[in-house]
Amino acid sequence: xxxxxxxxxxxxxxxxxxxxxxxxxxxxxxxxxxxxxxxxxxxxxxxxxxxxxxxxxxxxxxxxxxxxxxxxxxxxxxxxxxxxxxxxxxxxxxxxxxxxxxxxxxxxxxxxxxxxxxxxxxxxxxxxxxxxxxxxxxxxxxxxxxxxxxxxxxxxxxxxxxxxxxxxxxxxxxxxxxxxxxxxxxxxxxxxxxxxxxxxxxxxxxxxxxxxxxxxxxxxxxxxxxxxxxxxxxxxxxxxxxxxxxxxxxxxxxxxxxxxxxxxxxxxxxxxxxxxxxxxxxxxxxxxxxxxxxxxxxxxxxxxxxxxxxxxxxxxxx
Length: 318
Known about the structure:
Elements: H1 3-15, H2 17-20, H3 22-32, H4 43-52, H5 54-59, H6 61-78, E1 81-85, E2 97-101, H7 111-118, H8 126-134, E3 140-143, E4 156-157, H9 160-167, E5 175-179, E6 182-186, H10 192-207, E7 210-218, E8 222-231, E9 234-243, H11 249-256, E10 260-264, H12 265-285, E11 289-290, H13 293-309
Parallel strand pairs: 4-11
Antiparallel strand pairs: 1-2, 3-5, 5-6, 7-8, 8-9, 9-10
């Protein structure tokens, strides 16, 4: 069965969900004296029902479907999610209905698969525990510094690197990339070391609906290697943090605890775009001219990418 047909089937079921769940509602009332209200608390009553009717429920396909639909809809409503059909032929989840989350970094939730897993070890709190594990938030954000811009006469530069070195003082305020609330600091003066990687990463991410790429960032204490895989707004990041010397190993170990994460591609782009906009503003204020054609193309691309992303990090929006 193809993806379009599965989505049509799911949408048909969801459009008549109240009618579909009428019998399930009655069963809940009769068995555990609970009336459906799609609250998170109500999930435990579904568990009570399934445990109470364990043998029957385990072999009753329609009852399991109704329970999965109710749990999935409850999670969707309470955690800003939406239903979809999973599309990845290389996994066991292919063509499975699931709930994906729009504004936080929950993992995808597969209610029909979770129902089957529940019967391996039926216990009260199973789905809430699963949801709690999936709810773990991996936060990525960028906090800009407010560096004093060196006053330089309007002049021509051979390369973008030269602009960073002359425009920003090495001891000025820094910017921070927060990786699950752990700060990684970068000097504006030394951003030339990462500029090409940041620009290329953001250009490809905003340009392609599906793909993969790699970016390597450095500061004075570590290197960060990011492997990015995405399809539409689903972004998977595999990250590798390497300390430059042993005294920073504990720091990089803490960062590595969340080395593989899922994130919204648009949210990731928005965070970086805040920095891209700041760089553009600083260069424009200094009346910078790049004479080398290849280097000048980077500035043109920077303008294009910043406009195409058309959004900024969560610290800088109302």
